[in-house]
DNA sequence: GTCTATATTCAGATAGAC
DNA sequence: GTCTATCTGAATATAGAC
């Protein structure tokens, strides 16, 4: 089900941090990518090490040799960022988000992982809680800055002025954009025909930027 | 943690299908409410029948007597709608959504259940998939209508005219509103100080309605 | 460095006592 | 009508063979 990508070993040769692979990309890496696929499709709690192992024709213990525990494997998967399309800074980032939504619909993989796991992480004692809390904090900051960048200079001050609760309009807009993307992913996974992630994301970004460019 | 609602037996007397409750609201009902709380806090896959049973000082089998299986219990929990604040029709519904977001932040219970479970349901073979797919379809319809109601009559036609992909702007806005509410819930659960669900929800609704009231 | 075989814990569900 | 005691299978992790 996950063999959509034909090339098994696609990465730029001469990457900066290849850890001296005298053999070829070690088993560890195969496990990592397989685990990412399976976690994305079934969530963390609902995935067993046997599921992952079966896809590689090994036993569960084979997986555990490379990563000490299932939780460690999850952590490693989350750390494995997808650097194939680095997020640009500044106001270009907002366009990048739409592009990302577009790509996600074509390739239900990488970021489906984040949509499914982030919601799962919000449950008690989930091992990825801290990771996702930090991630959202960073994202809200970056996207908040991107929103400010897109506003006309005359609106920036208002949008970056904290209200009585200490939160800024730009930050609120950033939280909204992230929330829309996550929430849409869930709706789309359940019913792909029903929503167009990219266009709805674009609509919300446009609407929010326009809204922050008014005084009312 | 869950004793927010003081009245344990709130249902209209003379309801059409009261199954002759000679005693008082049966164990079944207690189990149902406890299960809802625990599913909300820990998700479905990560909750064991023992967890639920422990809170009632009984054994897992005690739970299974009332509901044939864990999946049946989940289904029953989902069916148990919270009728304490029925959603109004028409454009009032949008205000109701903001109110709902406000209440959710105060009482992390009922709809936290939906936020956590809906995302979990998007994973393979989850027992609640169909339930959530249907729920989202209905919600998009209702909220789409509410959006149209709020628009000026002169904009309604444009907003309800399907584009080349067969989807209407009002439907897109509806999907966006739902997505924002779900996504915010996740961010809020992970970091309650970081986002104000109600105000962000209001912001997005305002922005979308304003956006759909322009020609561009 | 890689994995098979095994131990241990805990899940969901069944049959039958109260 | 309600639940305790028990069975069966599957989960993660360990110890040690190749």
TrEMBL record, chains A, B:
* Domain HTH tetR-type intervals: 25-85
Pfam families, from UniProt?
TetR_N
The record, for SUPFAM superfamilies, names:
Homeodomain-like, Tetracyclin repressor-like, C-terminal domain
Q: Which UniProt keywords apply?
A: DNA-binding, Transcription, Transcription regulation
Does this UniProt record's set of keywords contain Transcription? yes
Q: Which InterPro entries does the record cross-reference, listed alphabetically?
A: Homeodomain-like_sf, HTH-type_TetR-like_transc_reg, HTH_TetR, Tet_transcr_reg_TetR-rel_C_sf
Q: Where is the DNA-binding region?
A: 48-67
Query: Secreted: is it a keyword of this entry?
Result: no
Q: What is this protein called?
A: Helix-turn-helix domain containing protein
* Organism, scientific name: Streptomonospora nanhaiensis
Q: What is the lineage of its organism?
A: Bacteria, Bacillati, Actinomycetota, Actinomycetes, Streptosporangiales
């Amino acid at each position: 089900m996950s063999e959509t990508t034909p090339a098994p070993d696609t990465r730029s040769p001469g990457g900066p941090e290849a850890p001296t692979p005298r053999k070829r990309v070690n088993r560890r890496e195969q496990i990592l990518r397989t685990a990412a696929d399976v976690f994305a499709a079934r969530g963390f709690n609902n995935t067993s090490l046997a599921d992952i192992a079966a896809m590689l024709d090994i036993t569960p213990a084979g997986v555990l040799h490379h990563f000490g525990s299932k939780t460690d494997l999850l952590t490693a998967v989350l750390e494995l960022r997808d650097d194939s399309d680095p997020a640009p800074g500044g106001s270009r980032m907002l366009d990048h988000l739409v592009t990302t939504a577009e790509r996600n619909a074509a390739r239900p993989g990488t970021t489906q992982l984040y949509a499914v796991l982030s919601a799962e992480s919000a449950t008690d004692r989930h091992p990825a809680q801290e990771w996702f809390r930090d991630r959202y904090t960073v994202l809200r900051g970056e996207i908040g800055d991107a929103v400010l960048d897109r506003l006309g200079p005359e609106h920036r001050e208002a949008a970056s002025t904290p209200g009585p609760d200490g939160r800024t309009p730009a930050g609120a807009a950033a939280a909204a954009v992230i929330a829309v993307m996550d929430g849409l992913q869930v709706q789309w996974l359940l019913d792909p025909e029903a929503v167009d992630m990219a266009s709805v994301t674009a609509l919300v970004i446009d609407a929010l930027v326009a809204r922050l460019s008014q005084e009312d």
